Amino acid sequence: MAQIEKNSHTMEQNSTVSNTLEVDGALLPTPSRELWEKICNFQARPDDLILATYPKSGMTWTQEILDMIQNDGDVAKCQRATSTDRHPFLEVVFPYKRKPDLEIALEMPSPRMLKTHLQSHLVPPSVWKQNCKIIYVARNAKDCLVSFYHFSRMISLLPDPQSFDKFCEKFMSGEVLYGSWYDHVKGWWAAKYQHRILYLFYEDMKKNPKREIHKMLEFLEKTLSEDVINKIVHHTSFEVMKENPMANQTAVPSNIYNHTISPFMRKGMPGDWKYHFTVAMNEKFDEHYKKKMAGTTLTFCTEI
Questions:
Q1: Which of the residues 41, 54, 70, 276 has an alpha carbon 20 to 30 A from that of 229?
Q2: Cα torsion at 92, 193, 148, 29 (round to 10°)?
């Protein structure tokens, strides 16, 4: 696994997107070399829980589930603040916040739940040294691409994705925020054989949320009653979360997230890609996908 200290010497400021930095070929929402050095040197604690995903792969949803688990299904406690304020992002700087999330994380009491979209080899080394528990959620490439496209349309911090065709080409080549989807999901898949990582799939969570919640509970060594688990399933359903201002991101300033262009929580159902891909695009994507995923045991379903 590549060492993050080495990566920090290969950074270049990206001139086309403000508040971003290129690290080891991946564009990150980190505005400066100084902040990246702080991320590299971040000191994890043994009882930290890390939630990791590629963008638009179920992070907000899984965060809500984990927050409900940690608070024994207490809905009021889980509505104490918005999802962007409850658990810090290691590498993200929100321009409307008084300080970077990294600094907020440093001030938090234990146990902490921290979020990241970083590829596995870019995670602060202390996370591995402290043997932190990590939950990773992966989503099939086609639905992830579609969701990322619509997200890029509504967020002012990212460049205009232009047409879906052009965004598809950039996604396949890894020229999007956080880099290659292929590298991301495969890197974390490989890391799970060496570290305490629960690797989950977005589609499995959709098909049988209760079963996946049981996996999380076992991984976290926690027990909840079936009544509480059913409560968690209900309150973290797409329909309920979409109406929850503490989870649907409508509290984020409109100059950052423009929900009139596209809601943050748009559809959330596997298979939506079929309404965006032409036959030719799908054939080209499938051919590229086979090459990029050759040799891995990692498999996805694209509809349920």
A1: 54
A2: 20
